[in-house]
Structure prediction request, 303 residues.
Amino acid sequence: MIELLALIKIPSPAAERIAEHFTVHQLPEEGEARSAMLAEVGPRIRGIVTGSRGYVREELLEQLPALDIIACYTAGVDPIDVEAVKRRGIALFNNSAALNDTVADLALALLLGIARDITGADAHVRANLWPERRYRPGNLLRGRKVGIVGLGGIGLQIAHRCAAFGMEVAYYGPRPKDVDYRYEADLLELAKWSDTLMLSCPGGPETQNIINADVLAALGPGGWLVNVARGSVVDEAALIAALQNGTIERAGLDVFADEPRVPAELMQLDRVVLSPHQGSSSVEVLPLRAEIILGQLRDHFGN
Prediction:
């Protein structure tokens, strides 16, 4: 069978489905075992299966001379040196189509979570404080101005959901799209217009820390931030400072700069909802992702 290299632990049921058609080698993260495996099977590897923490850099590509496809289990391909892959004529596929709805759903869950302070209200009830006093009121979503950073497949589904809640929607990206939502070519101007920023853009060098102190200041003291993109998109130190000093008010975060490590300062902040990078993880989508990635591999190799 054709041999593949897995840079991540492929979740079920994808692992079992792929193993029915290919020989899969699980690459150790580091050390002598990693070097030994690459020396032994590297020349025979035809494909890579990777994800958000499986890095594909020049050094690895040099050890895989027969490689001709990379299948990424996630929507983002920021762990991959895309230019190096292009130079070698290696096919690159992601899993974006399967993730649009599930990530957009979590984005709205985070938005509702910070709007109605659901985690705080839950803690209030569990601490048996309700008999003593009512919990503080939350906020409506209707009428808020939502700026979406990145109107790809996920961003578009976020936009549709926000519009359904009665929010005004605008978006920022490299170019306008054929949609009914307002386009803003300048990120700072989008932040000034918005009272809520929702991030759904790709990671990578082009978007590294684009949400910085200036953008957060433009969003303002009543501002909310929701990030289901990549942790690298946000200057995390600037975000922590902005939340601590009231530059913005609330945040809902599914991604972080150094996952799975989350800064203690974020954990200590009120009106911040944290999620362990669960945007793409839903029971209904997991088998669909498996079939998509298997289909990409089988179509490429004609088996």
Notes: The two ends are 10 Å apart (CA to CA).
